[in-house]
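Protein modeling request. Please complete all fields; requests missing the sequence field cannot be processed.
Requester role: graduate student
Desired output: 3D structure, C-alpha cell encoding
Chains: 1
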Amino acid sequence: RPDGPRYPIVQELVGLREQYTSHTLNSTVALVLAAQRSDDLTWVLDYCKETGFAPFIFTTEQTPEPGFLRPPTLRGREAPAYLSYVIEFYDKLPDYSLFIHAYPEQWHNDLFGPFTHKTLRNIRYEAVDAHGYVNLRCQLDPGCPIAAFPLNPTQTDIDVHDIRAYFAQAYQEIFDVPREKVPGEIGNVCCGQFAVSRDRIRARSKEDYQRILYWVRTTELTNDFGVGWVLEKLWHIIFGMDSVYCPRFEQCRCDNYGWCGPLPSGELLTAVKKGDP
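Delivered output (277 residues):
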C-alpha cells in the first residue's frame, strides 16, 4: 500500500482507469505513462478529472507500486510501458492514445512552456486523425534531419561497441525484416512523447508489438539505456511514418496546435484535416 499523501492520488488514478476498462468511463483519450514513486502525479489526476481522459500508469520500480500496471521488464525507460499498454488494451483502445512522461515539466515541451498539461490542452485531434501519429514537439532539433545511419556506423561507434554500431541488426530483429529493408537514414523529432490514433495503432498486429516487447526484454545487443535509445528513434516508424519524418516546424505548429500565422513572411498556413491529400 502506498504511504502518506500519495495514496489517495494513486487510488483515484487507478479508479479512473478501472472505470474505463469496465465501460463506466466513456473516455476517447488515454494518457499512457511510466512513473516512479518520486513522480508527482497530482497534475495527471487533475487533468484527467477535468477532461474525462483515462490514465494508464505503469510502475517502473523494482518493487512495484500497488495499483499501477506492471510492464514485464524495466529495460528501456518508458518503452516497455508504452508497448505493454498497446498489447494489453489492443482490443479496447480509445480513439486516441497520448504517450507522455510522468514529470509535469519537460524541457522538450516547446510551444507552451515546459508544463505538459499546457501542451495537451492545445492538441488538435484532427491532426492525429489525419496523420495517425504526431510528435508533441515541433522543434526539429534534436533528431532531425537525421539521427542515425543504421547501415553506416562510425568507426568510433564500432570500436566502443556503441548501439549505433548494431542498429541495423536491432532494426532487423525489431521489425522482422532482412537487411535490405533497413533504411539508410532515420530521423524524427525527439523525445518520446506523441499521440497516436486507434486505427494507426491497429494498423500493426498485436503480434508485432509482442515481438518488439520481446526484443526489449531479451536483446543482448545493448544495455538498458541503449534499448530506450533505439525505441525512441523508432516510435514514428513503429506507428507507420516514413523512416525520416521531420515536418516543417511552422506546419507542425499549425497542424498540431492550430497556430497557423500569418508568419513573418505573410504566409498563412492551413491546418491539416482528415481526408487531406
